Amino acid sequence: MDERLERRPQAIRDMFAEIAPRYDLLNHLLALRRDLSWRRRLVAALASAPPGPRLDLATGTGDVALALPAGSVVGADFCLDMLALARRKARRRRAAVAWAAADALSLPFADGSFAAVTIAFGVRNLADLAAGLREIRRVLLPAGLLGVLELQRPRRRAVAALMDVWNRVVVTPLGRLISPDGDAYAYLPASVDTFPDRPAMAEILARLGFALVSGTDLSGGIAGLTVARREDG
Fold first, then answer.
1. What are the tens digits of pLDDT across the range 105-147?
2. Which range marks the domain in which residue 220 is found?
3. What's 114's domain CATH number?
């Protein structure tokens, strides 16, 4: 658990490799399928991005990449087990997505390669958040859009208290019952509590050369959606 909360890349990669076979099932169960609508909001929020290729970073099993408008779409992740599941989904749906094994802290793409970058439930696992955001900015075109969808601790006390109960009574026990790496579903709620919320994320992005386009709390503030544009200079 401690290694994971320190965001050590190998520990995080190993965790996702272990839970990959049950990842989609548990995500949908534990979020009461709200994660599906959150991802749709993320994709819709980047509709105003300039024309050009799209990158879904920390793509996991590929749900966001597969939902992006047809065209030049790349789904990238540093966990090969997750990418294998994403490729299978794409084959079943006959979707033309390019999949890439890539570490968000050192992306194998040229400067200005993408008109838009999405990342859903991935930034809080980065070993160095600022370094990852700088890499995203580097591979974005000028005026390209970044969409960040992430869980957060709700600011409303009642919602936060309900989330604490849900995590303690449902998320951690069910994760331990179903997942081969039960401790992963103790780490995931803990990682939310030790990560910047949406307003703090907007401040970080502004310091790193992004201009805030929009920020939205979802489902009572359980998740946050931030859209930012790469500024020149």
1. 999 999 999 999 999 999 999 999 999 999 999 999 999 999 9
2. 2-230
3. 3.40.50.150
